[in-house]
Structure formats: structure tokens, C-alpha cells
Amino acid sequence: MKSAYASTSSSPGLDVWRVTEEGKKNENKAERQYDAIAKSILLSSLCDSVFNRVFANENAHKLWKQIVENHEGTKDVANQKYHILGEELSSFKQLSNKNAHDMYSRLNTLVNGINALGLNQVKGEEINRKIIRSLRKPDYDIINTLLQKEDLVKFTPNQVINQIIAHEYSMGMTKKGARVHLFFKSQKSCRQAFMQKSTKATRLVKLK
């Protein structure tokens, strides 16, 4: 912002910045002109939402102070959001009725929210480790052990999640997880075997 004032020309530009930071020395014509130029520069640089909150200030100094206060408030909000989302990331786990793809979708939304705040960025290797630590036990113990032996720096999160999804297919896991899938599969097999035996027994009785 100061560079915008300085570019108006050397001495007047510095006076315009002085009026913005310190206020007018008096009410003479030159000071009022500096103040008017400063207000014009400030207001023209604002987005609509901020402009509507600050444009009524009577001079450049008060206008500048409110802009700074709003900016600091925005930083406080961002820090608070970062703290909340950071806690969610720390406690993040795969849900009992969701597969790896669903888990990664939730995690990705959370990570994007944190990174959009422009504070500390959550990067690839950290995401990879979070994916592995979040996997549901004991359904993913095998792939978890295998992935922990890998150099996760070399993998993107997509590559890690694809390996986990491949594991789900190889284990016959559905969206609700291996245990639920295998339970119903075994129940179905039992029912089929029972029906086959029952039908066979009925036929034998009829033959007799």
C-alpha cells in the first residue's frame, strides 16, 4: 500500500502516506488534499465486502485504522479455524461403515480447508501418514503393515489410497468393510447349503 502512495510522486506521496498513518496536521488546503488522495487510493484498493464496512470513515487515518482492524480480525478468525480443523485432523479416523475411498474424500475436504487458510500447509507425506494411521483395525492391518515399510515421500496420497483400494478388492471388501461383507457372504453360503440339503432330503423321503 505504501508503494502506491510513493508512486504518486516523491514528496506528495510521502505526505499522503503520513496523513494516512498519523492523520492531518491541520485543516489547511494541502492537508485536506493529501487526505482526499489517501482516501481515494485506499477505497479503490478494497473489495466490495470490506469497502461497505469502512467507506463511511471521515478521513484517511480513521479509514486506515479500521482496515487494519478488519485485517487483524480476519487473521484471528483464520487462526481459530485452523485450530479447530487441526484438532479434527488429529482425531480423524476411518468410519466403521465406510471404505478407503470415502475416508480419503473426507480427509481431502479437511486438508483443503486447512490449506485454504494460508497458514501451515498439510503436505503429501503428512497426508500419507494420516491415511495409514486412520485405517480401521483389524480390516486393514495387512496393507497398513506393508505401507509402513515404504518410503512414503516417494508416493502421492492418490497412489497410497489406490493401493488400499486394491487391497479392498483383493480381500473382497465392500463399502461396509471386510467383516460385514464376509459375514453376510458366509450367511448366504450357509443358507444355500441348508436349502440344498433340505431339498435333497425331501426328494429322498418322496422316493421312499
Describe what this molecule looks like in 3D:
With 208 residues, the chain is mainly α. The protein has 2 domains: 2-76, no CATH class; 92-181. The chain is built from 10 helices and no strands. It has helices at residues 2-6, 10-22, 29-44, 48-54, 60-90, 100-115, 124-134, 141-148, 157-170, 178-207. The longest helix is centred in the middle third of the chain and has 31 residues, at 60-90. It is rod-shaped, with a radius of gyration of 32 Å. The model is unreliable at 176-188 and 204-208 (pLDDT under 50).
List the total number of helices: 10
Instruction: State the total count of DSSP E strands.
Output: 0
**Distance between the ends:** 102 Å
* Helix/strand structural class: mainly alpha
Spatial shape: rod-shaped
Low-confidence stretches: 176-188, 204-208
Mean pLDDT equals 81
Characterize the biggest β-sheet.
Answer: none
Strand content: under 5%
Could you estimate the helical fraction of the residues in percent?
Answer: over 70%
Radius of gyration: 32 Å
Q: How many discrete structural domains?
A: 2
Order of helices and strands: HHHHHHHHHH
List its traits:
rod-shaped; 73% helix; 2 domains; single chain
Write the layout of secondary structure elements.
Layout: H1 2-6, H2 10-22, H3 29-44, H4 48-54, H5 60-90, H6 100-115, H7 124-134, H8 141-148, H9 157-170, H10 178-207
Helix pairs in contact: 2-3, 2-5, 3-5, 5-6
What's this, in brief?
By secondary structure, this protein is mainly α. It is built from ten helices and no strands.
